[in-house]
Write a structure and sequence with these properties.
alpha+beta; five-stranded antiparallel sheet; elongated; 3 helices; about 140 residues; about 15% strand
């Protein structure tokens, strides 16, 4: 939050709405949009939200175009509870709720580790990560 009197960022000391603040606000908006709206309302009420500042992204996300049989390869940062990267052959796609930033995918893991290869895993990747090229590899229908 910017300082009330000087309007400087309390973390880096530069002008408010620096890159660190915008990045933190974008992460907050992605994780908890309701809380981000409350933070913005407080900043606007206090006169700390600059006039003409860009609106935060909408909470409606594009529909996911993943279907059973596709291979999904996500990095650790691209899915909820991401401890490690996961590559899986999709067996089932959960409901695509338009206001959630993630979707549930279940399938068999593809890995070099013989203990985990073929294991049934549940992954909740972010929809934005699935839109990047190379993350979803479409398998031809037979």
């Amino acid at each position: 939050m910017p300082a009330r009197i000087t309007l400087d960022c309390r973390t880096c000391g530069t002008a408010a709405f620096c890159q660190k603040f915008r990045r933190a606000f974008a992460v907050l908006h992605r994780v908890d949009a309701a809380r981000a709206r409350r933070v913005r309302a407080v900043l606007e009420y206090a006169g700390l939200w600059p006039v003409g500042a860009a609106e935060p992204p909408t909470t409606e996300y594009a529909p996911v175009r993943v279907r059973p049989g596709d291979v999904v390869d996500v990095r650790a940062a691209d899915h909820l509870d991401g401890v490690r990267p996961v590559k899986l052959q999709v067996g089932d796609v959960g409901p695509d709720v338009p206001w959630q930033s993630w979707i549930i995918l279940m399938g068999k893991e593809i890995t070099d580790d013989p203990e985990r290869s073929g294991e049934l895993v549940l992954v909740r990747p972010y929809k934005g990560a699935l839109a990047r090229p190379g993350v979803v590899v479409r398998r031809p229908r037979r």
